[in-house]
Amino acid sequence: MKLICPSCGAVHSADAWQNDPVARQCLLLACEMPHSVSSRCFAYLALFRPAGRSLTWKKVLRLLSELKELTTMSHIQWDKKVARPNSANAWGMAMERVIECPPRRLPLKSHGYLRAVAYEIADDIDRKKEVKKNQEERPRHIRGQKEPERISLEEMQAIRKKNHNKRHPGSANG
User: Fold this and answer.
1) Over the stretch 14-33, which tens digit does the pLDDT of each residue have?
2) Which parts of the chain are beta strand (E)?
């Protein structure tokens, strides 16, 4: 079976890629990651490739190792904001967003941009969970209540006039 490198176009047999120990380690790392991440990791790593050159397997290994570490931590935090629960799905969605709309300055130097996007997604997911939990914790009679009916401006003015007349009987202005 022949494999074509999507980055540089090199054609080799599957055995040739397997013979390189660093390439083999990279492929193993990619396979160990959750599907939502592994299915996008090579397209994402292409954003690190300098124009007109290819990435070395050593650099790919370092980037994949960092990515695996980021995606397996229990929480995600960015820019001194509140830590949020980490999930592979958040990272997968973040990778998809970065691939679809990469930053202006390429090649990427670090995973910082991806971390910021992943944090936004994790923050949004956590916020939705908190809202749902808070709604479920409310007593049933409050949860089921409808919004109070609104009154018109004229009705409000009539009520004010009536209350004013009660407090100040005999007032001509009312």
Assistant:
1) 677 677 888 889 989 999 99
2) 2-4, 11-13, 75-76, 84-85
Tokens of 85: 């629960």
Which amino acid is located at 65 in the chain? S
What is the rounded average pLDDT of the residues 50-75?
A: 92
**3-class secondary-structure state, position 24:** helix
**Domain interval for residue 25:** 2-142
Instruction: Let me know if 68 is exposed, middle or buried by CB neighbors in 10 A (0-12, 13-18, 19+).
Output: middle
pLDDT in tens, 130-144: 988 888 877 665 656
151 inside domain? no
Find all residues with CB under 8 Å of 149, minimum gap 6, and list them. Answer: none
Q: Is 80 helix (H, G, I), strand (E, B) or coil?
A: coil
Which residues in 14-167 belong to E strands, given as ranges? 75-76, 84-85
